């Protein structure tokens, strides 16, 4: 298992803080590169997932863009097959589409998260991705 | 001189298209990762500068964020000392601040460019950074 968490471009940051940590299965880390201020209206976080870690199903009222910088992971929209992700991949998540993202079982995973149209409001967090759902991905 | 242009995370893309190419000294490359559509309101480009390449002085009516992914380069605001940039650096460029960015003399340079508050309008391009200004940076 590689240790990509020590070799990424942007800082790994700290363990995912509350209240967000409770919407993750496994340990994730967050470094906010740009805050959610009213000057730029463009919150940007660097999110690192340990192997097997993923977030709950959720929706962004204004959408979200993921830019994958390292490791291997997954992105899935409700009712669709999961998409494998690796460095260089870009995910454009439309507003209010129920989805989750996270690491592969056997790899760290790192992406930049850019909240778009953030004036629409914060993410709405839903139920976890079950072990059955997650372990049947491959 | 390293050849970082072949080893970056996101695609290098094509030679900077017109009308933008005329606002650069030297050769730059552009891959748009996210277009400037009305769904996300968040144009994201991957910009690669060959050694010595830099853009003209310019202003963004809505601001811009740079996320440096490779190489070494410079960012300068009018009336201030230039800031050296390397992978992992984040530059938050306020609206209407006159500035330029580009590669070091002896290195390729790669950054993501995120246009913020893009409804404020496109960049206003100004005069080139002269050779005197550029070669006196170090």
UniProtKB/TrEMBL annotation, chains A, B:
Signal peptide limits: none
Coiled-coil regions listed: none
InterPro entries to which the protein is assigned, alphabetical: Cupin_2, HNL-like_cupin, RmlC-like_jellyroll, RmlC_Cupin_sf
Residue ranges of domain Cupin type-2 in the record: 47-107
A Pfam family that the UniProt record links to this protein: Cupin_2
Domain of life: Bacteria
Protein name: Cupin type-2 domain-containing protein
Higher taxonomy: Bacteria, Bacillati, Bacillota, Negativicutes, Selenomonadales
């Amino acid at each position: 298992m590689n240790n990509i968490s020590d070799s990424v471009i942007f800082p790994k940051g700290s363990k995912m803080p509350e209240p967000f940590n409770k919407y993750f299965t496994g340990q994730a880390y967050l470094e906010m590169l740009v805050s959610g201020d009213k000057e730029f209206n463009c919150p940007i976080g660097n999110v690192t997932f340990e192997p097997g870690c993923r977030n709950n199903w959720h929706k962004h009222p204004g959408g979200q863009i993921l830019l994958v910088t390292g490791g291997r992971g997954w992105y899935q929209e409700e009712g669709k097959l999961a998409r494998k992700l690796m460095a260089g991949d870009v995910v454009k998540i439309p507003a209010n589409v129920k989805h989750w993202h996270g690491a592969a079982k056997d790899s760290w995973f790192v992406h930049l998260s850019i909240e778009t149209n953030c004036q629409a409001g914060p993410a709405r967090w839903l139920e976890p991705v079950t072990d059955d759902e997650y372990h049947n991905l491959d």
